[in-house]
Amino acid sequence: MSLRRRSSRVPQLLLAASLMGALLAPPAAAASAHRSPSGEPGGTGGRGLPLRVATYNIHAGAGMDGVFDLDRQTTELLSLKADVIGLQEVDRHWGSRSEWRDLAGELARRLRMHVSFAPIYSLDPAEPGGPRAEYGVAVLSRHRIVSAENHEITRLSTQDPNPVPAPAPGFGEVVVRVRGLPVHVYVTHLDYRPDPAVRVAQVADTRRIMAEDRGPKILLGDFNAEPAAPELAPLWRELADADPGAPTFPAQDPVKRIDFVTVSKNRIGVRRAWVPESLASDHRAVVADLLLRG
To answer: For this UniProt entry, which residues form the secretion signal (predicted)?
Structure first.
């Protein structure tokens, strides 16, 4: 399916820059003292700017045991010591499974990070005057988010009893500035069904959207396919897979790698990548130390 680039710029996507900016921004002293994961306070002698990124499907706050426990996931996310984190399966006042809470906002406050939330679904409130019930993806960042968009890609709705592939939101993009360098960060959650047809269309949409941007690019997400899957092959024309050398799903005795940190070739180097052991979700995270080149 061929789609025009469609996106929305809505206030909720830039919580850090609007309603929650003052709350989420690190104190000046802490920000000035922040060091990269490599321990270097700034650049690396012309070799690039260090940035630690991660992707994590948080399973709506529930662990491998099916128990909702945001404290457990907060501890896991803190342990990653990442500068930028892409999250999937994020509830925002969605339902009882996550206690009707705003998981993106709560995690941002707890981690003292900026946040951008991009809903896939945004439903009418359960009660008049209440918040909308939303589910989607999010980006947490220690660096200021200077812009955000929620792009539409092809989806097969889980809310429609008779779905057909159609454009729908939930492909999040933010621009963060790393020591003055604009970096595009995208977060996605591709279709989970065994038939790869929808993922084929989603990959085409992803490449089209990303091609409109310049500079260093980072794509984070749950691709619901392994690296050698044919439907993912077009991504590897422009992107490099930060291969952590370990599977990510399921979290208990994982057997396949479907969670990815990918970066634009020739603009970003991968120093190392790894998969921490954890049962705080039904997926394991992927973490990568990167070097950005302007």
So the answer is: 1-30
